[in-house]
Amino acid sequence: MSLNLMKGVAGFALAAATLMGVPLSADARELVLYNWSDYTPPELLKRFTAETGIAITLDLYDSNENMLAKLKAGGSGYDVVVPSDYMVKIMADEGMLIDVGVNKMENFKYVEGPLKAPYFDPERKYTAPYMYGTTSFSYDTGAIQGLEASWKEFFEPRPELKGKIAVLNDQVEVINNALRYLGLPLCNENPADMKKVQELLLKQKPFVALYNSDGTHERLAAKEVVMHMQWNGAAHRAKQTLPTIDYVYAKEGISLWADNFAVPVGAKNIEEAKIFINWMMDPKNIAEASNFTGYMGAIPAAAPYLDDSLKTDPAVVPPEGADKLFIMAPPCGVKAKELMDKVWTNVRK
Amino acid sequence: MSANPLRRFPGTGLAAFAFFAFLYAPVIVLIALSFNSGRSSTLWEGFTLDWYGVVLDNPDILRAAKNSLIVGVISTVVSTVLATIAAIGLDRARFRGQNAVNSVIALPLVVPEIVTAVATLIFFLSIGLKLGLGTVILAHVIFCIPFAYLPIRARLEGMPVAYREAAADLYANEWQTFRRVTLPLLWPGVIAGGMLAFITSLDDFVITYFVAGPGASTLPIYIFASLRMGVTPEVNAISSLMLVVSIVFVSISAWIGRRSS
To answer: Averaged in consecutive runs of 10 residues, what is the pLDDT profile of chain A (349 residues)?
Structure first.
């Protein structure tokens, strides 16, 4: 037989075998984790496998909306996903989450604080808290000094910051914080109010170098921009490279978000998923995750295991009274969403 | 054959140099920065081999690279075989609907990739096919066929019919003619088509993103999802490794080609 034909037959055989999904071994326990990229330390997952004997397959996504789209488009087979606060509400309302009884799990006793009974899962039936963080802005104190702790410095910047500001490419975050700065209500259905937001953002536009959510800490540390709208964990990571970075707790209020573990409908390894979620609420394990990501978990007992660099960073451990400024935003209705879409399109075009 | 008259045209040397520089400089920078001791993929800080260690220690990126290679190899082989058959079949045929067949083969080239991606996903879901690595391979085979088809078709048309007629004169049947005359002469075209299909499959993002199931991430999908947290030289390292693997693979196939021709 000619070489080409042999290759062809081999190719077909291989294809057929793969299509039929030949399993690795009959008894291997496994878990498919669908997570944000760079959000769980690889060593932590390896330790999980070593301690429980469950192999983890990790798939990545970069936004809640992409994860939701994937699950809706027939992507079943994910055992644990990591939705943010508002996405949990959306998924729970659509019946996409399995009630795994997180509040009955052994390690749930370590969870304390406002994230024990959040608005999106008051009884903590579907979800377990993972990391929480805030979204504000940070700037390089080496390049500009004496800025006020207010959103004014970001939305109405000083003239020397022209072309030196980066804004997150996140419609909800930018508009919500603009509304807070203007003192207007969130999920705003009033076109006149949203017009004011649009004008504010358009006036800011000449100062903006780019609208981008990728590699924010790299961009700041490389001094490509002086001011960046950012999540506090990214600010912490930027600070490791460039110590003059300062994260601002704006007095008008900043966004609080919380990521959670959840088990979507269509999961195959539900028992393994429960073991994983319970394991991740152990103080030592959540501390290891915090040390890696630069965000805090909802488990106070993890404090002794945190790195010193985290404990001393005001971006990670907020100063006294700063938590009054944290506002978690529930998902908005259709009319409000339409106005937000319009404003964002007009600003970004 | 006389020397290429184009060489005497002023500026060709410079233009050629600039062209290759523009094409290869980013690749060289990519490989160079994989040895960067800093965490940035763009700012050079010092020399180290650590990132290759990180890559080899990261099971997820290795799985993504392995998936990319599996999908690439299988879809290349299958689509090249199918494309060869199609080229030979359409070469001498004079049947009704011939133009339609030609157009359908070229369809994935003409239709925007996002349309192919969504249509493929909807089709798989409607026939109840579960998303996974198999669906990725299936989708890749489909859109790699035209990429493999074109070089083979071009080579076939440039091949004088006289050789095949001579073989027939010497009492060779269809199968023998194919195996001992057509295929060896066609082989450079088949190799070119295969390489094109492999590169397209390895590189594809949009279609793969839509039809991949759990655990079936390929490297472009992994890198895209990693962008949010910032790209470290780990990506440079895995890209350099993929480059080496691709070069080895292509060299082997070219060597096999030279041996059998």
So the answer is: 56 49 56 89 92 91 86 85 92 92 91 87 92 92 89 91 90 90 90 92 92 84 90 88 90 91 92 94 93 88 88 84 82 88 90
Dmax (CA) for chain B in angstroms is 70
The DSSP output letter for A298 is S
The H-assigned helical ranges of chain B are 12-33, 50-57, 59-92, 98-110, 113-126, 133-157, 161-169, 174-177, 183-203, 206-211, 219-226, 233-260
In a domain, residue B204? The reply is: yes
Which tens digits make up the pLDDT trace of B88-115?
888 877 788 888 888 899 888 899 999 9
Distance CA B114, CA B116 (A): 5
Structural contact between residues A316 and A296, judged by C-beta atoms closer than 8 angstroms: yes
Please state, in angstroms and rounded to a whole number, the distance separating the CA atoms of residues A84 and A260. Answer: 6
CB contact under 8 A, B183 and A214: no
Residues of chain A with Cβ-Cβ distance to B130 below 8 Å are 76-77
Q: Pick from B176, B196, B195: which is nearest to B184 by CA?
A: B176
The rounded distance, in Å, linking the Cα atoms of B57 and A41 is 12
- Domain extent for B161: 58-260
Binding-face residues of A in 217-256 toward B, CB within 8 A: 217-218, 221-222, 241
Q: Is A33 helix (H, G, I), strand (E, B) or coil?
A: strand
User: Is B208 part of a structural domain of the chain?
Assistant: yes
In a domain, residue B243? The reply is yes
Would you tell me how many other CB atoms lie within 10 Å of the CB of residue A51? 11
Whole-model pTM: value is 0.78
Q: How far is CA A183 from its chain centroid?
A: 26
CA distance B218 to B136: 9
Is residue A13 less than 8 Å (CB to CB) from chain B?
no
38-57 in chain A: CB under 8 A from chain B: 38-39, 42, 57
Set out the domains of chain A in order of their start, with CATH numbers: 18-130+259-304 (3.40.190.10), 133-256+322-348 (3.40.190.10)
CB contact, 8 Å: A130 with chain B? no
- Tell me how many domains chain B contains: 1
Whichever domain contains B213, its CATH number is 1.10.3720.10
Non-local CB neighbours of B258 within 8 Å, separated by 6+ positions:
none
Note whether residue B101 is domain-resident.
yes
Degrees, nearest 5: CA angle A189-A194-A198: 155
